[in-house]
Design brief:
The chain is built from 12 helices and 12 strands. The protein is an alpha/beta fold. The strands form 3 sheets. The chain has an 8-stranded parallel beta barrel with strand order 1-2-3-4-7-8-9-12, surrounded by 4 helices. The protein has a two-stranded antiparallel sheet with strand order 5-6. α2 runs parallel beside α3. The chain is globular and about 60 Å long. The chain starts with a strand and ends in a 9-residue tail after the last helix.
Length: 346
């Protein structure tokens, strides 16, 4: 299992806790990134939203791309999975930007391709907002241009959404044959696109028994297309305590749902513009990305056992959230990662 985490570019993950002691500042995220790679974490996902959908639209949120470039320069081994929404970036320009950050990092950049869901944000920033399946059609073309821009020069492409002529992109990314492309989604359009054009499938939080059939489905799609297996990641919110009762008490604190919280309207927009395979509860609203559903709550041994279940289901990567992030990541590293035998540097 590889251990990744969401970079707290929004100042936290809990819609019912106003101040999580993890400010959306360069000082905090740079300190967190440098420490995380020393205590056993392999990857950080830097989400891309220009507005803060968790703490409310008036709250700060860090820009994913400039933050990632800076993190590339101050870290040594951490993979930087940068979220990107095709509607916000022309593909050739994004390919250039990502290749440059990949060179800064020495080949540690990957992309998490996200088809936009937040209509209000797009309107505020003057960006085209497509309907659901149209977004995936656009993303498909976008991926074609990015992939070829990274691999060859004097490349031309003409599609419904994008076109380039005699494109030259230098320097190419360090990562070969290209930086890893992750993507998620539960609609048929999303899964078919991922099976065809991506390298890894990342899923919102769910327990192992729900994740396993999703992995089997994606593996069968890849096999039918004659393509090699992809990697699989799952999002989750982790709470580790010395006793099960203490862990449950913490969950009770963070799921005290306040429907008038600043992020609730944004959450309703997300529900309206996605196609999910199951209903989402108000408890899911409390912790972003369905973080509590994987069941990563309990004692160190309970979490180790649960992680083993995910491994047997076929999961390669956990994308974890914690609050407050630095302190809880230290606790998780000491009680879960170190006992598993993962090398941790002083």
């Amino acid at each position: 299992m590889r251990y990744g985490y969401w970079m707290p570019v929004f100042g936290g993950w809990l819609r019912n806790v106003e101040d999580e002691q993890m400010a959306a500042t360069w000082d905090y995220v740079s300190r967190l990134a440098r420490r995380s790679e020393k205590i056993g974490f392999d990857l950080s996902l830097i989400a891309e939203l220009n507005l803060n959908d968790i703490k409310g639209v008036d709250a700060p949120s860090l820009d994913a791309w400039s933050t990632s470039a800076a993190l590339a320069a101050v870290t040594e081994r951490l993979e930087l999975m940068i979220a990107v929404r095709p509607t916000f970036h022309l593909p050739a320009l994004l390919a250039k930007q990502a290749a440059n950050i990949d060179n800064i990092s020495g080949g540690r950049v990957s992309l998490n391709v996200v088809s936009s869901w937040w209509a209000e944000e797009a309107k505020k920033y003057g960006v085209q907002f497509d309907q659901h399946d149209d977004r995936y059609a656009r993303t498909s073309e976008w991926l074609d241009v990015v992939d070829q821009a990274w691999k060859q020069d004097h490349f031309s492409y003409t599609g419904k959404y994008y076109s380039v002529t005699d494109l030259v992109l230098q320097p190419k990314p360090v990562a070969k044959p290209r930086p890893v492309i992750y993507a998620g989604g539960e609609s048929e359009a999303a899964k078919e696109l991922i099976a065809t054009k991506c390298d890894a499938y990342v899923m919102h939080g769910d327990p192992p028994e729900r994740i396993a059939p999703k992995i089997r489905d994606m593996a069968e799609r890849r096999e039918r297309k004659g393509l090699p297996p992809v990697k699989y990641g799952v999002a989750g919110y982790a709470v580790v305590r010395e006793t099960e009762a203490a862990a449950k008490k913490e969950v009770e604190r963070i799921t005290d749902v306040k429907q008038n919280a600043a992020g609730y309207k944004n959450y309703e927009q997300w529900l309206a513009n996605t196609q999910l395979e199951q209903r989402v509860s108000l408890e899911d609203y409390s912790v972003s990305n369905r973080g509590l559903r994987p069941g990563l709550v309990g004692t160190p041994q309970q979490l180790a056992d649960r992680i083993g279940e995910f491994e047997r289901a076929g999961v390669d990567l956990l994308l974890l959230q914690f609050s407050p992030q630095l302190e809880e990541m230290e606790r998780f590293a000491d009680s879960v990662i170190k006992p598993s035998g993962v090398a941790v540097r002083a």
